[in-house]
Amino acid sequence: MIEVKWGEDRQSEAQKMYQARIEKAGGIYLIIHKFEEFYEWYMARGKTQIQKKISRP
């Protein structure tokens, strides 16, 4: 899950609870403020993490 925030936008309590559920289930949850953040995460860890989640039995 990728949550995009703009400017001073912050997570609501409902979004924080949703994030906790996603992560507890083993999912990936990112809060991104600009494309560069996503790109850096993807190049450093994202490809590997996504491949592992897809190839799980």
Short synopsis of the structure:
By secondary structure, this protein is mostly helical. The chain is built from two helices and two strands. The chain is flat and about 35 Å long.
Q: How would you describe this structure in keywords?
A:
57 residues; mainly alpha; two-stranded parallel sheet; 2 helices; flat
Query: How widely separated are the two ends?
Result: 20 Å
Helix content: 55-70%
Q: How many strand units?
A: 2
What is the residue-mean pLDDT, rounded to a whole number?
Answer: 85
Shape: flat
What is the fold's blueprint, element by element?
Blueprint: E1 2-4, H1 13-24, E2 30-32, H2 35-54
Parallel strand pairs: 1-2
Can you put this structure into words, describing what you see?
The chain has 57 residues and is mainly alpha-helical. The protein has one domain. Helices cover 56% and strands 11% of the residues. The chain contains two helices and two strands; from the N terminus they run E-H-E-H. Strand 1 (2-4), helix 1 and strand 2 form a beta-alpha-beta unit. The protein is flat and about 35 Å long.
